[in-house]
Amino acid sequence: MRRPNQILEKSKEFAIRVVNLYKYVTANRSEYVLSKQLLRSGTSIGANVRESVYAQSRADFNAKMYIALKEANESAYWLELLAETEYLTPTRAKSMLDDCIELIKILSSITKTTKERKENPECQINS
């Protein structure tokens, strides 16, 4: 049985939450600009992680993961703005931000590890 890929799962779950949040904010709060930006960056995280699965090289993999990391950081920004402008309740904002920060931590770890392996090839583990 294949081991589940944590970043693939979590980035997709986050994208689903972002889509649902977008639907809520646009329908119930009539906010379209900030939430659209969040929709783009929040769903882009998972898309880039998914692309990295079939990366052509370690450099391509790392590039996709760095893009996902940048998108996660941008998503945190839009969530903060939505919270501070009171389009999101503090509880909903905290929950979404907690998930986003978790993604940032995982992606940071992946990009750091991949970079270290590139710089020190003898540290690579054969699969």
> What characterizes the major β-sheet?
none
Query: Low-confidence parts, pLDDT < 50 over ≥5 residues?
Result: 123-127
The H-level CATH homologous superfamily, spelled out, is 23S rRNA-intervening sequence
Top CATH class = Mainly Alpha
* Secondary-structure element string: HHHH
Structural class of the helix and strand makeup?
mainly alpha
- Number of DSSP E strands: 0
Number of helices: 4
Question: Number of domains in the coordinates?
Answer: 1
Proportion of strand residues:
under 5%
Please identify, by name, the CATH architecture: Up-down Bundle
CATH topology: the name is: de novo design (two linked rop proteins)
Helix content estimate: over 70%
Q: What integer value in Å does the Rg equal?
A: 16 Å
* Head-to-tail CA distance between termini: 16 Å
Task: Describe, in short, the structure shown.
This protein is 80% helix and 0% strand. Helix 1 packs antiparallel against helix 2 and helix 2 packs antiparallel against helix 3. With 127 residues, the chain is mainly α.
Structural commentary:
The structure is a single chain. This protein is an all-alpha fold and 127 residues long. It has one domain (6-117): 23S rRNA-intervening sequence (de novo design (two linked rop proteins)), CATH 1.20.1440. Helices cover 80% and strands 0% of the residues. It is built from four helices and no strands. It has helices spanning 6-29, 33-52, 58-84, 90-119. Helix 1 packs antiparallel against helix 2 (33-52) and helix 1 packs antiparallel against helix 4 (90-119). The longest helix has 30 residues, at 90-119. The radius of gyration is 16 Å and the shape is elongated. The model is unreliable at 123-127 (pLDDT under 50).
